[in-house]
Specification:
By secondary structure, the chain is mostly helical. The protein has 17 helices and eight strands. The chain has a two-stranded antiparallel sheet. It has a two-stranded antiparallel ribbon with strand order 2-3. The two termini are about 35 Å apart.
């Protein structure tokens, strides 16, 4: 954690530049030489620091690619054609404690949470003019939400799933909670998974309180806002199997976000992925566009020239006329044995189809309907589950009413599990869904077109990824996940 502390400070106070120029998202880069001890002493400087924290979230090491892609690459939804080695150890469920993807996710996740904690500490201790109070409250709301997001991603990758089909694993080792800035001399320790979730919920509730006090937002889904916070809270509650709270939070997100229906034609669905702010079903997204993007390190590149495509399983459960196929395409050099996808949701179809320009939509309305549907099933409320599910399931033109959905609870749950695969593909949820449901899946597909699954009918419920050696070796107090290597399915 000492190593991460040093890096986090540089990120917060010195800032950096992104690919491209003329960027309105980071309109005030934080390279103003602000002093670490006294620099966060004004609302303006808090704003600079907050921009830097969004940059770390945005970076391709974290939400801009690695941390988001992780959840689908390590699942039954992706197929690797073996032509490049990106994410190959993650795809094959053979990670190591020196894996650079894991190290980068850990590193940048802690940049986000540490930077957020510094903003929160400075902002809550600051006395400001009445005219600045609303702006400061808005910044604090965003900082609490950013810290919650960072902690949530980290605990789901580096800790055990908090609940697995009714089993409680909240006492398992979680992550280091950064509720106060960490100094170079601090030794640290890991909180439990349960303590981590408690902290995440507390931060999200504080974010909502501060947004309420502020009475304003930045007016764009490129920044955290109340709909996004409620949406993330719904996801957290679902993972905790707190179903009523997940339902209620999802409804808050939908109501505040103004979404009650979804795109159900090929044209309207494809238009969601024209580039950056084109998706009116999204509550929170990243500012990736033609001038600000990660080029070869983008998600779009991963799902095209870096070898990944929809798995045989996903293709088999997606109806041929399902509107979600409107963004699917295959490159001219694709062959049955070496398929090349054209990036799917990262197609940036309104920006010339350059997959590097496709952005990440992180918290979206369709997930809210699916959270509600699953939660209602767990409450044995079939009618409400089918009503929530129908809004999303109508992406398949063959489904027009609740009568087209299963009425048996078991069959309905199975349908919801498949619907989450169809709808949330490329958004990074699948690994955690497979873990929390405790279901068997076929993983590590190879040998197209005669597909073979090298990990057949296995569970990943207990998979826990290793804390990077780079962190363990600092001797700052972070302990390794004991026996992590034995938690992965073996061929």
């Amino acid at each position: 954690m000492k190593k991460l502390y040093i890096k986090a400070i540089g990120a917060l106070l010195l800032g950096g530049s992104m690919v491209g120029c003329g960027d309105s998202f980071l309109d005030t880069d934080i390279y103003n030489g602000i002093d670490i001890d006294s620099g966060l002493n004004s609302v303006t400087n808090i704003g600079y620091a907050l921009n830097g924290t969004y940059y770390r979230l945005f970076y391709y090491y974290f939400a801009g690619n690695y941390a988001t892609s992780f959840g689908d690459i390590a699942s039954d939804l992706s197929y690797w054609n073996h032509e490049t080695n990106h994410f190959s150890d993650i795809y094959t469920f053979a990670p190591t404690s020196t894996d650079l993807y894991l190290e980068d996710i850990w590193d940048y996740g802690y940049k986000v949470v540490d930077n957020s904690s510094r903003i929160i500490k400075a902002g809550t201790e600051m006395t400001v003019e009445e005219s600045e109070e609303a702006e400061l409250d808005m910044y604090l709301a965003e900082a609490y939400a950013l810290r919650a997001y960072g902690h949530f991603v980290l605990v789901n990758i580096f800790g055990h799933q908090v609940k697995v089909d009714g089993q409680d694993f909240s006492s398992k080792p979680g992550i280091v909670l950064v509720d106060q800035p960490i100094t170079p001399s601090d030794n640290v320790s890991r909180a439990t998974v349960g303590e981590t979730y408690t902290s995440i919920i507390k931060d999200l509730k504080l974010a909502i309180e501060y947004f309420d006090k502020a009475g304003q937002t930045k007016g764009t889904p490129l920044y955290f806002n109340p709909a996004a916070v409620w949406g993330l809270l719904s996801r957290v509650y679902l993972y905790m199997e707190d179903y009523q709270n997940s339902i209620d939070a999802a409804q808050k997100a939908l109501t505040i976000g103004g979404v009650s229906t979804l795109a159900t034609t090929d044209a309207s669905y494809k238009a969601l992925y024209n580039g950056e702010l084109s998706n009116n079903e999204s509550f929170f997204c990243l500012a990736i566009n033609t001038t600000t993007n990660w080029s070869a390190n983008s998600c779009g590149t991963l799902w095209s020239t870096y070898s990944y495509s929809p798995s045989p399983y996903l293709q088999s459960i997606m109806a041929e006329n399902d509107v979600r196929r409107a963004v699917w395409g295959w490159a001219s050099n694709t062959t049955p044995s070496v398929p090349w996808f054209t990036s799917g949701k990262f197609g940036a179809f309104g920006l010339g189809g350059n997959s590097a320009y496709g952005t990440n939509y992180l918290i979206n309305a369709p997930e809210m309907f699916l959270n509600q549907a699953e939660s209602y099933v767990k409450q044995k409320n079939v009618d409400n589950a089918k009503a929530a599910l129908l809004t999303v399931a109508k992406r398949n033109p063959a489904i027009t009413s609740v009568d087209d959905l299963p009425s048996d609870l078991t069959a309905l749950m199975s349908f919801i599990q498949e619907e989450r695969a169809r709808e949330l593909f490329q958004e990074g949820h699948r690994l955690y869904d497979l873990r929390r449901w405790d279901v068997k899946a076929n993983l590590y597909a190879t040998g197209a077109p005669e597909i073979d699954w090298l990990l057949k009918n296995v569970k990943v419920s207990d998979c826990v990824y290793p804390i990077p050696d780079a962190e363990i070796n600092t001797k700052a107090g972070v302990t390794q996940n004991e026996g992590w290597n034995s938690t992965f399915p073996k061929m």
